[in-house]
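Thread amino acids onto this structure.
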């Protein structure tokens, strides 16, 4: 029979009431009930028998607080003890407020524990039995080191309980402890949300782990956890982190805003996840290293800061019916000797490659979709990857690239809408292509580089922007039952020394069927072009001979390398005349002064050399920083002529290029393309407009970095025979110079081209008018000044270009006006009047 014991302050509670809780406990028998009156009770309690303590007036009315330094407040040494509706205040946040001894049992219901942890210890071995603890609708707050610590042979259950504000880990399980947590809310911990060590076990259901300072859920050693319908939000490190030989199974969980990776699996750990999502991770969505394994089904990984899925070491990843969307790097990135298996997965809108496989890693893709990425699939491993029944659409660069020395088998792969080539097989790569389709690519359908010899069967290439198949020097391979339709360049281009075999191939509706360079050796067996037999006998028209799609001839290349072109050498010019031409330019006072100083310096250098004295160190390369239309190209052209007049350049001509003239579409193109442009400028000036575009803010694997590296080497190799001027917006040129250590030492001087003032813009218009035999009336000039003063100087403003455009518009409006006159006078024919100016609203 249960006996009720009442605890009340002196003078209250009636006859038989106890005045301390400890007295009532000592008087109670196992199974008795201790009812406590409202108030704060300063005691240390020891529950050594099965008693129930409850607050008479409900939750929050009873506080038990131990004297300072005397912790724990409540010690449980007996079985089947319980506290209902009671608040426990610990005297030291770093010590236990409630301590449960091995073999004891405790139920906390509607209780709060503040300023100290709940510590539960179980027997060290299984023969010692277990310690049982249940927390229902409780709140643990303000502890240090841990909010709840379960150690040894503990069996615990949490229901509708909150753990918050812990300076350390929210819940720690160690030894052989096990916890079943339902609707747990764990938030604001400086350490991990939950940490499992030893052989601990966790089952987490319908719970939230939010705002942890480190990992949301950390599993170490040989621990195991299952989590279902739970959320891990904004952890300070990984969302779920497995190390050692830990095991975890996640179902319908959401991991959002991790400061590091969303899911981390290391060493020999194993992770299984189904129906889960990882979003906005500060690093990878899924990171698997060591010899760990991860298996994901029907999961989503969105907006990762690093690659969405990254595997390294000998890790294994298996993803089925998963989606990767958004992200600053790769969709899936496998390195080391990792193995990644993707089945029916979708990867969209990542900034770099959809699937990247490097070193000795192996990838197996089946039924996957890659769309809206920079490059689609990049295979850089020789270990042998397989891609089957997969589509790659809308890539900004190459659809599928097999890098130097890599190996892959492609079967039934569809590549559509690539911004460059559809398929690239790099130098020495091994590729087997069976079936599939490449369509609507901006570059060539398939590119085969030197030394590569792919086996291609049944591939359809439709509407490529360039060649259907481009084979570089020394390339080869066998192409069987290849179909090429509607190619913009020759359907098949074969370079010098290339010896591909084409069997049963069909060419239809192409600009040209076959383009070859001198020395090409293609073999054509039973091939047709628009139904007619296609044979190879003489060299067909090729880009070297004026056709589209191949490299320039050896003669033209040598000509470019020697700095010669179609025009004659420039005439000798007088230095003073050139300086006079410079000073006649409108505005640019600061630039004129800088160029004049450079000329004087170089005159001195030239005289020292003529006197047999060593020349001082001098970089002639310049940065022109300024907005569009400020005369950068004009001054660059004059600068080359000035150096020619000084005898410091052979020709002094200007070669103007931009990113498109230097950067190739696929691996191996950029170096030769940059070199060709540089060779054209030998003896003169290479002017790189918008040079900052070679070093984009988020470069990733951008080919612009290769162009910069090539330029740096060429500038060193030909430092006395060329001047390079890099031009662009002032705010972006600093990034360009900082993109490669060699640039800062070679570009030692920056010339700032300031925007033109209104009066200077009027002078440009008047100069144009004088050249074309026009005159501005005084009223027109006054109105023109006003127009330039009020003209918005936003992104579309072009400085001198805008002035020249206005002059052109004035002449067009004047022509319309004069055409209506019956017999215009000579003065009317040359006069530009105020109403010939464009209306400001029209600009």
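Threaded sequence (843 positions):
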């Amino acid at each position: 029979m249960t006996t009720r014991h009442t605890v009340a302050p002196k003078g209250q509670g009636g006859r038989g009431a106890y005045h301390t809780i400890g007295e009532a406990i000592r008087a109670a028998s196992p199974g008795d009930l201790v009812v406590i009156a409202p108030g704060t009770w300063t005691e240390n309690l020891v529950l050594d028998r099965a008693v129930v303590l409850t607050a008479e007036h409900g939750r929050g009315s009873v506080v038990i607080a131990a004297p300072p330094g005397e912790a724990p407040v409540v010690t449980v040494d007996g079985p089947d003890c319980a506290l209902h509706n009671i608040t426990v205040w610990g005297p030291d946040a770093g010590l236990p407020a409630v301590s449960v001894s091995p073999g004891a049992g405790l139920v906390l219901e509607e209780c709060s524990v503040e300023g100290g942890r709940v510590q539960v210890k179980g027997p060290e071995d299984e023969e010692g039995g277990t310690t049982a603890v249940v927390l229902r609708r409780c709140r643990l707050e303000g502890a240090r080191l841990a909010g709840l610590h379960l150690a040894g042979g503990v069996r615990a259950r949490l229901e509708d309980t909150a753990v918050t504000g812990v300076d350390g880990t929210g819940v720690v399980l160690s030894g052989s402890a096990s916890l079943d947590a339902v609707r747990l809310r764990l938030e604001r911990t400086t350490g991990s949300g939950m940490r499992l060590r030893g052989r601990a076990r966790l089952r987490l259901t319908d719970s939230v782990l939010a705002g942890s300072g480190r990992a949301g859920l950390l599993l170490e050693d040989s621990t195991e956890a299952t989590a279902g319908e739970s959320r891990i939000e904004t952890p300070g490190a990984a969302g779920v982190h497995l190390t050692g030989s830990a095991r975890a199974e996640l179902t319908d969980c959401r991991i959002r805003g991790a400061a590091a990776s969303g899911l981390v699996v290391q060493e020999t750990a194993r992770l299984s996840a189904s129906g889960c999502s990882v979003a906005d991770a500060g690093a990878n969505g899924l990171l698997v290293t060591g010899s760990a394994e991860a298996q994901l089904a029907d999961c989503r990984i969105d907006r990762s800061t690093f690659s969405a899925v990254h595997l390294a070491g000998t890790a294994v990843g298996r993803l089925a019916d998963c989606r990767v969307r958004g992200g600053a790097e790769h969709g899936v990135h496998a390195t080391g000797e990792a193995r990644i298996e993707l089945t029916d997965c979708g990867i969209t809108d990542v900034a770099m490659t959809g699937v990247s496989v490097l070193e000795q890693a192996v990838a197996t893709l089946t039924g996957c979709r890659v769309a809206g990425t920079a490059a689609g699939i990049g295979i850089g491993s020789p270990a042998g990857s397989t891609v089957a029944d997969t589509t790659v659409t809308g890539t900004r660069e190459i659809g599928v690239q097999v890098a130097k020395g890599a190996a892959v088998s492609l079967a039934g792969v569809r590549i559509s809408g690539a911004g460059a080539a559809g398929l690239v097989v790099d130098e020495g790569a091994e590729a087997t292509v069976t079936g599939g389709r490449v369509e609507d690519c901006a570059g060539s359908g398939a590119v085969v580089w030197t030394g590569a010899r792919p086996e291609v069967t049944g591939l359809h290439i439709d509407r490529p922007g360039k060649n259907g198949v481009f084979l570089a020097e020394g390339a080869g391979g066998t192409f069987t039952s290849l179909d090429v339709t509607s190619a913009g360049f020759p359907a098949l281009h074969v370079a010098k020394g290339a010896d591909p075999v084409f069997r049963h191939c069909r060419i239809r509706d192409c600009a040209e069927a076959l383009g070859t360079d001198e020395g090409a050796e293609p073999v054509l067996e039973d091939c047709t072009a628009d139904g007619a037999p296609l044979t190879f006998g003489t060299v067909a028209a090729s880009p070297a001979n004026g056709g589209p799609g191949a490299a320039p001839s050896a003669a033209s290349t040598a000509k470019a390398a020697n700095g010669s072109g179609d025009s004659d050498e420039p005439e000798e010019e007088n230095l003073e005349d050139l300086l006079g031409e410079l000073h006649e330019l409108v505005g640019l006072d600061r630039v004129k002064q800088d160029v004049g100083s450079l000329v004087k310096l170089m005159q001195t250098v030239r005289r020292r050399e003529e006197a047999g004295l060593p020349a001082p160190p001098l970089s002639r390369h310049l940065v022109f920083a300024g907005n569009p239309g400020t005369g950068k190209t004009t001054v660059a052209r004059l600068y080359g002529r000035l150096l020619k007049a000084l005898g410091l350049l052979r020709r002094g001509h200007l070669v103007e290029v931009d990113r498109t003239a230097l950067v190739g579409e696929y691996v191996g193109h950029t170096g030769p393309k940059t070199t060709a442009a540089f060779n054209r400028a030998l003896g003169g000036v290479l002017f790189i407009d918008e040079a900052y575009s070679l070093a984009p803010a988020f470069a990733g694997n951008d080919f612009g970095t290769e162009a910069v590296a090539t330029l740096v080497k060429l500038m060193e190799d030909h430092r006395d025979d060329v001047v390079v001027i890099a031009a662009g917006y002032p705010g972006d040129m600093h990034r360009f110079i900082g993109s490669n250590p060699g640039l800062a030492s070679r570009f030692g001087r920056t010339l700032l081209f300031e925007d033109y003032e209104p009066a200077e813009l009027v002078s440009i218009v008047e100069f144009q008018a004088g050249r074309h035999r026009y005159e501005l009336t005084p009223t027109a000039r006054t109105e023109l000044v006003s127009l330039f003063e009020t003209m918005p100087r936003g992104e579309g403003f072009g400085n001198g270009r805008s002035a020249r455009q206005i002059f052109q518009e004035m002449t067009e409006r004047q022509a319309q006006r004069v055409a209506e006159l019956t017999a215009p006078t000579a003065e009317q024919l040359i006069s530009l009047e105020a109403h010939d100016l464009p209306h400001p609203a029209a600009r």
